[in-house]
Design brief:
The protein has helices spanning 13-20, 65-73, 86-93, and strands at residues 25-26, 28-32, 39-43, 46-51, 54-61, 75-80, 109-112, 115-118, 122-134, 137-148, 156-158, 161-163. It is mostly beta strands and 168 residues long. The protein has one domain (26-160): Pnp Oxidase, Chain A, CATH 2.30.110.10. The strands form 3 sheets. It has a 7-stranded antiparallel β-sheet, with helices on both faces. It has a 3-stranded antiparallel β-sheet with strand order 1-11-12, with no helix packed on it.
Length: 168
């Protein structure tokens, strides 16, 4: 039986992370381009906000290069990765930063106006509508301006590993 803790202060960072690892998430790469150049990072903290008007949110570590670039450019693209895009998730998580100078080198993408869109991903191209600071992260709320859908199953992340959806 799980216990609900009544004192919010007793939930440690480690316990919180352990609990969040029990939540399966789709994997996406947030990209941006403009005066701050191409930039991108792998994320799993994103959600729809509204269908009328179409809006979504993405959470980025406030001190990160991607958060600074999205702020400077005023746009971002949420590229929800397909199951065959694990290499993109790893590349933009920084795993290969010691051997690849530019995360975009050798990646199949194209720029649409101020957005960087990955081939084969479901891509939500957004203009930043609002920013909210929450702890160590900034929540960027974006108005969706363009959308490209993919027909592949999404790449998911659960308990520290990339996964494919189970067929039932």
């Amino acid at each position: 039986m799980s216990m609900i803790q009544s004192d919010l202060d007793i939930v440690s960072r480690d316990l919180f992370i352990k609990g969040m690892r029990q939540v399966a998430n789709s994997v996406a790469v947030v990209t941006t381009t403009g005066d701050a150049k191409h930039n991108g990072a792998t994320v799993s903290a994103f959600s729809s906000v509204s269908a009328d008007p179409p809006q979504l949110l993405v959470c980025l570590r406030s001190a990160s290069q991607i958060a600074a670039a999205v702020t400077a450019n005023g746009t971002f693209c949420l590229n929800v990765l397909s199951h065959h895009h694990q290499h993109l998730a790893e590349r933009f998580s920084g795993v290969h930063d010691s051997v690849v100078e530019n995360r975009f080198d050798g990646i199949d993408f194209h720029a649409e106006d101020t957005w960087v869109v990955f081939a084969g991903a479901t891509s939500f191209c957004c203009i930043v509508a609002d920013r909210i600071i929450a702890g160590t992260h900034t929540i960027f709320i974006g108005h969706v301006q363009r959308l490209r859908t993919a027909n592949d199953e999404p790449l998911t992340y659960f308990q520290g590993n990339y996964r494919n959806l189970a067929k039932v």
